[in-house]
Amino acid sequence: MARATAKWSTAFSRFGLGALGKAEPRAGDPRDALAAELAAPGAGALAGPELKSGVEAMTTFVELAAERAQAQKTPAAPKPSPIAAIFKQEATARIEAACAAEIGFVERLVAFWSNHFCISAAKGLSVRALAGAYEREAIRPHVLGRFVDMLQAVERHPAMLVYLDNVQSIGPNSRQGQRAKKGLNENFGREILELHTLGVDGGYAQSDVGELARTLTGWTVAGRDGKLGLPGGFAFNANAHEGGTRTLLQTRYEQEGVAQGEAALADLARAPATARHIAAKFARAFVADAPPAGLVARLTDVFLQTDGDLGALARALIADEDAWSAPATKMRDPWQMMIASWRALGLDPSQPNRILSSMTLLGMPLWSPGGPNGFPDAADAWASPEGIKTRVQVAAGLGRIAKDAPAPRELLARVLPDAADMTRETVLHAETRAQAYALMILSPDFQRR
Amino acid sequence: MSMARFTRRGLVGAAAAMAAAANLPRWASASSRDPRLIVIILRGAMDGLSAVGPLGDPDYAGLHRELALSRDGAHPALPLDGFFGLNPAMKTFGRLYAAKKALIVHACATNYRERSHFDGQDVLESGMPGPGLTQSGWLNRAVGSLAVAQRAQGPAFAVGYLPPLVLRGREPVLGWAPADLPPPGDDLLSRLAKLYDHADPALALALREGFDAERQVRGGDMDGLKGGGDVVAQMRGAARGAARLMAAPAGPRIAALAFEGFDTHVAEGGATGRLATLLGGLDDAL
């Protein structure tokens, strides 16, 4: 059966990070190009000699904390923060990967899953130190792998265990629970059920939250003494674990130790409610705030039939006619807007400060959402009066620094080949190149996807 | 077409870009004085007939209609040579002209005849025969042709985040920008509002609400383009900074500035509208 036409502009805006202003227009079927990006060896991976592992980043944090405690006793001149340096290196690596991608579908998938399983660098210096490593270690290896593997990797990563306070959750009947007066922290269990897996309507009860939280007690980060494991890495602390059989969603878990939590997470990953939750969120993020029901149903089936193969989910999305034919009603979020602008105008990705500060102004500070539900993906959230005003200010500035961009007419042909006549006219009749670039970035054709 | 104006220490002259480029080295060597050259690009196709109107032309008032300047009325044009009159917003320039310290070279243009503003500016600033040849500007090349001794005062400098094309090229250029980040400008807003009105009502509404507060403060109007106060302040700030740098004994001798907003195809308004506001800003800057 012949496939309906799929536009390159849709590939770049809906599934990618925007066309490159310096690249010639593409030929062929964009679905094949997107599939090729998924099939490329090492897709999603990000590494570099300057990038620190989570364990190294955590060690830097612990040393800094010790140093600062010492400095309170004997004040010394403040030094530039090694954690700010780590964060900037990680941000630069992410921005460079996004700008270098051919279309950017894989990087969009990384951003989607990173936001689904978000942590926040605003939690404190330790999460800030870990934010980039977390994405590279827990998210990226699995964006085209299995959901269950990503879930297991995410929930045992130190960044997540600190962010959702599981390092402070102690089984009331555990050795530590008996000794100290600390107790269970249900935060981690609740967010896993509500946000990471089943979804808020996923059919669980408050008792399930408590049972999952108890199952996961003892999942923590190894301390400096190294008694529990590599300092700064994941550790299971048997002394904080609530022993015994747990019952979660009518299933009994009789395992001991860390195996109990792993078994519970594996079952949650395969629950039909999780498939529905993920499929709907996936379609909403890429296609429309209210995605076509048929599309969501088909993605749900794929998720269930492939045991949560996220590569298969991505391939199903780009093979679906509904995913291409839906009108462009969503807004590019600030990350997408900044990267798409950088790619269009050919700006230097090794200088991330302007992107990072603009993202903060636009309400999307990198790796720092306001809550564990992540940044919003609905159009209304980004098309607010304050948001649009800030976009205008940011875009006006970008127009002024775009010194190596192609002439507006050429750029428009490459970046917005299907732009509406009015957009074309507005951009081409601009008073200056700087204004033309700003108007192109601000046009509905660029902002909507 | 935009006009280029050249300033040499209080002596303001306007000349065609090409002629100036050719003359530049000779000026520098023939004079025992210590001249300065500032090139100001007014971006956006300024209406020269409303800046300097041929009042003596019997067809002028009829053809230029409500945009035409006139000798009488509430805002009479400033007298120049009897035939031409100056937009009343340019009082300083009018005084300089009367004192024979300013000159107008009217109605000269490059060979570019299409309607793209940036292509037109590319030709004007590159000094090349056609658009798209934008690797360097004529002023930069002119600096390169000066003898080393004549350039002892250091590199030319440009006002703004990016040097205007006219000053870009092989020769090193100093940059300087006013400290405050300039606001997007009424002109960009008005164009964007028009586009959103046409194509995306939700964004149009958000844009209006977003800038509502600012608009009230300034008394400007996104649609009517009556504002421009910020533009004038920007011009003055940029010119003051440039003057301070160039007045210094060891300061740069050659500079380029670009002022935007002269594409006044809406609400231009002859002697009192947006063009007059902008010309007033330019006058202040001079």
Structure annotation, total helices of chain B: 10
Q: Tell me the helix content of chain B.
A: 25-40%
Number of strands of chain A: 4
Element order, helices and strands of chain A? Answer: HHHHHHHHHHHEEEEHHHHHHHHHHHHH
Given helix and strand content, the structural type of chain A is mainly alpha
In the predicted model, the low-confidence regions of chain B spanning at least 5 consecutive residues are 1-31, 217-229
Q: Given the structure, what is the number of helices of chain A?
A: 24
Radius of gyration of chain B: 20 Å
| Span of the ends, CA to CA of chain A | 27 Å
Distance between the termini of chain B: 20 Å
Main β sheet profile of chain A: 2 strands, antiparallel
Largest sheet of chain B: 7 strands, mixed
Instruction: Tell me the structural class of chain B.
Output: alpha/beta
Strand numbers in spatial order across the main sheet of chain B: 7-2-1-3-10-8-9
Instruction: Estimate the strand proportion of chain B.
Output: 5-15%
Radius of gyration computed on alpha carbons of chain A: 23 Å
Query: Which geometry of chain A do the CA atoms define?
Result: globular
Stretches of chain A where pLDDT falls below 50 for ≥5 residues?
Answer: none
Assembly state (oligomeric): heterodimer
Order of secondary-structure elements of chain B: EEHEHEHEEHEHHEEHHHEH
Mean pLDDT of chain A: 94
